[in-house]
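To start, one record:
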Amino acid sequence: MPDLALRDLGAAVVWSNDDLFAEAQNLIKTRPAEFQPATFGHKGQVYDGWETRRRRQDGIDQAIVRLGVPGVIYGVVVDTAWFVGNYPPAISVEATAVSGYPSVEQLLDAAEWTTIVERSEVNGDTQNPFRVDAKERFTHVRLSIHPDGGVARFRVHGRGVPDPAFLTHSGIDLAALENGGLITACSNMFYSSPNNLLMPGRARNMGEGWETSRRRDRGNDWVQVRTAGEGRVRLVELDTSWFLGNAPGAASIRGRDTADGEWFEILPGTSLQPDTRHRFVVECERPITEARMDVFPDGGMARLRLYGDLTEAAVAEIEQRWESGEA
């Protein structure tokens, strides 16, 4: 079964109570953990994993992972590679299903968590596998280590189960560069080009997205896109992956047909979470040839997708250009 918690699929460690020695984001790296002896930083030996401080009182340490692909979980692997004298003696795993894009506070205070792996002993420097028999669809998992220590990788193997709403509203990406989409204007491109927004695939780091400088006025940043042709948008994707402390607080999408020049709302101003792939079903029957994304007030976005359908007139025009050899 595929690992649903891979960073490459859009998973993220959205919270941990402690990662003093080694950051929790290492848990979901794709490659196996590596070790270089005698590589000391100001916090001690550098580990390619998640390591918490030594507890001096009762308790546990925890990390919450948002699955890149929500689904049914069949098993997890708690890999303690290279942790020999500092691995946790036991672990447990819980999971929850939350619709939308919950904040950390919502996950901690309101989510209903189901135990999918009871407290179990683990060995150091070992891939510790655990079978999961739950049949529900989950969106987040919570790894608990008893009481503290280090874990190199956390694998969550299962089968992806998509929200049916996203299967019936998406066609081609009207904004994609490979489909003929084009950036026509933007307010700011201080750190990186807005063309990155329309690139294929997922961004592999912050530098592969669009990031603006910090605004010190009351305005906001924006970008305009000419679509592949006249079309109707059915699904909007705003991906803030990799942008942790510099994602926009909110964003909106407007569209227009350049024949009349009137802008109209497609997605109203909507709050965004950092390091998250957001998808929104929209109901807008008016065709567009250009879209504008406003971010409030500034920040970075990895990808912008506008899934929808070309109008019959647009298809005919594209086919005519293709047959005539016109660009």
Remarks:
- The chain has a mean pLDDT of 93.
- Residues 92 and 118 are 5 Å apart (CA to CA).
